[in-house]
């Protein structure tokens, strides 16, 4: 099931926000970021938003996902950038306020196989790509 992620706001006073799920929950969770934008009261300065998570070796990594400035790029569409909780959003530079919004998907493991629900089945395979004619 998909749930709207009400989002969070990063400011000079609240530099980070962690999205996590109950460790006892045996469902699979995906958090997808749709938009990162400056909100009312933002100064014309660079605001860098980082995503802090864990890599395949369980080491913490921080990756910048947005560099917003009121005069040139106040909003960035992230096209549902998918993350696996727990994940922390951090304002690495600037004072915000920066708002993040998206959705949270929960896949219950006891649900029927999601392969049946796929919009793209084997019967819908695309034809092979043919080389361009010279």
From TrEMBL:
Biased region (Acidic residues) positions are 113-126
Q: Which GO terms describe its biological process?
A: chromatin remodeling
Q: Does the keyword Chaperone apply?
A: yes
Q: Where in the cell is it found?
A: Nucleus, Nucleolus
According to the record, the residues making up region (Disordered) are: 113-134
Broad class of where this protein is predominantly found = nucleus
Question: What are the protein's UniProt keywords?
Answer: Acetylation, Chaperone, Methylation, Nucleus, Phosphoprotein
Entries under Pfam families matching the protein: Nucleoplasmin
Question: In this protein, which residues make up the domain named Nucleoplasmin core?
Answer: 7-105
Protein role: Plays a role in the regulation of diverse cellular processes such as ribosome biogenesis, chromatin remodeling or protein chaperoning. Modulates the histone chaperone function and the RNA-binding activity of nucleolar phosphoprotein B23/NPM. Efficiently mediates chromatin remodeling when included in a pentamer containing NPM3 and NPM.
Q: How does it assemble?
A: Interacts with NPM (via N-terminus). Forms a pentamer with NPM at a ratio 4:1 (NPM3/NPM). Two pentamers form a decamer.
Family, according to the entry, reads as follows: Belongs to the nucleoplasmin family.
Q: What is this protein called?
A: Nucleoplasmin-3
Q: Which organism is it from?
A: Ceuthmochares aereus
**Per UniProt, what is the name of the gene that codes for the protein in this document?**
Npm3
């Amino acid at each position: 099931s998909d749930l709207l992620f009400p989002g969070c706001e990063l400011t000079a006073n609240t530099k980070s926000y962690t999205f996590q799920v109950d460790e006892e929950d045996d469902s699979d969770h995906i958090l997808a970021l749709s938009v990162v934008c400056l909100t009312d009261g933002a100064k014309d300065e660079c605001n860098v938003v980082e995503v802090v998570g864990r890599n395949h070796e369980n080491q913490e990594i921080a990756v910048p996902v947005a560099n917003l400035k009121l005069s040139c790029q106040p909003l960035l569409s992230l096209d549902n950038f998918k993350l696996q909780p727990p994940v922390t959003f951090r304002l690495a530079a600037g004072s915000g306020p920066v708002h993040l919004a998206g959705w949270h998907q929960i896949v219950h493991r006891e649900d029927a196989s999601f392969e049946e629900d796929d919009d793209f089945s084997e019967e819908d395979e695309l034809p092979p790509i043919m080389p361009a004619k010279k």
